């Protein structure tokens, strides 16, 4: 694996507008903005905390995975995401180790990334995301 750091912790919420003030104004985290991720049917808001981020996820459709998660478990922790250097290679290696993948091929994620989720059945019941930045660092 090419894990570099924890990219972000995902938190499922019914409303970004209701929770942004808590993270920005009360906790004092740097607000990085909002974005819609059509492929996941979510609107996201990111906050910087050290080298990592907090990602709030609001469903944009009642049939989305986030909407179903909130319906079943309520608002709260959704996933942990790790930043990797070579997502395709990592996914290939994970498949060889018989790790169950939700996305065997990366897809477009927020903040100019490629993402893929690993199934909680293979990760100790923790939804795990791999993220690779599409932005080249100088």
TrEMBL record:
GO terms (molecular function) for this protein are: metal ion binding; methylmalonyl-CoA epimerase activity
Query: Domain named VOC: which ranges?
Result: 5-133
Keywords from the named record: Isomerase, Metal-binding
Q: Name one GO biological process term.
A: L-methylmalonyl-CoA metabolic process
EC numbers on record? 5.1.99.1
**Is the keyword Metal-binding assigned to this protein?**
yes
| CDD domains assigned to the protein according to its UniProt record, in alphabetical order | MMCE
What superkingdom does the record give? Bacteria
Q: Which NCBIfam families match?
A: metmalonyl_epim
Q: Belongs to which family?
A: Belongs to the methylmalonyl-CoA epimerase family.
* Protein name, as recorded: Methylmalonyl-CoA epimerase
